[in-house]
Amino acid sequence: MVATGAPEDAYTAEPFVPERGGLPALRRAAAGCRGCPLHRDATRTVFGAGDRDARVMLVGEQPGDQEDRQGKPFVGPAGKLLDRALAEAGIDPGEAYVTNAVKHFKFTQAEPRKRRIHKAPTLREMTACGPWLAAELAVVEPELIVVLGATAGKALLGSSFRVTQVRGTVLEAEIHGRPERLVPTVHPSAVLRSDDREAAYQGLVSDLKVAARALS
To answer: What Å distances lie between residue 41 and 51, 112, 198, CA to CA?
Structure first.
């Protein structure tokens, strides 16, 4: 690694990822990650959560405001909607592992006490955080990855990924050196923003039913 002023200038989490110890060791180490500048403004690292033997891993974009405050992924409105959609599709949310491509909340804020507005991470920031996702995949070894939205898709499948072109289909790809099966769909926050929320929700459930069938 090229010597630079601060670890975040290198844009890689690699030096912070422990070689052994499973999910607890990864979670502890991630709390001190300085692999990119996003750690400076975020409250805390939001690592993945769930069963290390989970058959399905759900990968979103990044933590939101509530996740950043609580330190857990998918605890805000989008997470509650996702749990409902998973259950309706036949996947037990309690048996899934949920995480994000980027582990720190990226946001803009007009004034200190104003609402923090989500800002999409860059490809460089996603790449910097990639070693954490690779480590989670290596430990959990899911049978299927559900890709939630365009940013997660780009982090896993490259910058040409378009969720609208492949949603609700089973893809096969090598991810971080492992052959994986993936089902892309929209991020649940996109459902909440939709003009026709019910139609968008049913589309999410339909995609998740494809994932459920792929696991059966």
So the answer is: 29, 12, 35
pTM tops 0.70, yes or no: yes
Residue 4 has pLDDT above 70, yes or no: no
- pLDDT above 60: residue 2: no
**Partners of 6 in the β-ladder:** none
Residues 6+ apart with CB under 8 A from 23: 48, 52, 136, 139, 140
Tell me how far the alpha carbon of residue 160 is from its chain's centroid: 18
pLDDT in tens, 25-53: 999 999 999 999 999 999 999 999 999 99
Is the pLDDT score of 202 beyond 50?
yes
Of 84, 118, 102, the closest CA to residue 204 belongs to 84
Region of 90 (left: φ > 0; alpha: ψ -120 to 50; beta: rest) is left
Helix (H, G, I), strand (E, B) or coil at 64: coil
Backbone angles phi, psi at 181, to 5 degrees: -105, 135
Query: Cβ neighbours of residue 117 under 8 Å, at least 6 residues apart?
Result: 107, 108, 109
- Six token digits for residue 145: 């990855």
